[in-house]
Amino acid sequence: MNRRVMLKWMLLMLVSFGAHAQKFEAERAFVQFYSKAAIEDITAKNEKATALFDASSGAIAFVVPIDQFIFPKSLMQEHFNEKYLESERYPQSTFQGHIQGYNAEATGEQTASAQGKLTIHGVTRDVNIPGQIVKTDKGLTMKSKFMVELKDYKIEIPRLMWQNIAERVEVTIEFAFRTMDE
User: Which helix (H) or strand (E) holds 149?
Assistant: First the structure.
């Protein structure tokens, strides 16, 4: 199932769209993770995520293809996909939830949080992700920075690598949304 079809299915499972719903889809997506470790910091970026947001209900869903993270070193990318995230077995990370604290009538920057289920490496956990939403007449942007504990998602770090890979990684997301065509 392609990412866009899966994403729409996930969002439809969360909410029934009304005729006047304020529906948005990400036209630009940025996901990054950063691991600060004793020997070497690791960072990777992904601009292939997809996201949908229904402002009238607060429902949000996004899908991140794991094999689309780009690393500064190809060997890091290979190890990430083969040994740690096992991207052939677990090809994507997903989030399904609702935005809390967002006022669809207001413009400018708002502090909000996303509560829902985050799935990474085949493990789903309840999360509360803090962030900001900036609404303009052209659309809206969602930004967040949060920590992920690798052990919570059964991502194992070999003993030999404990100085190279942090047990907690910082995740940064930014989605620029545009109104969906009815």
Answer: strand 139-149
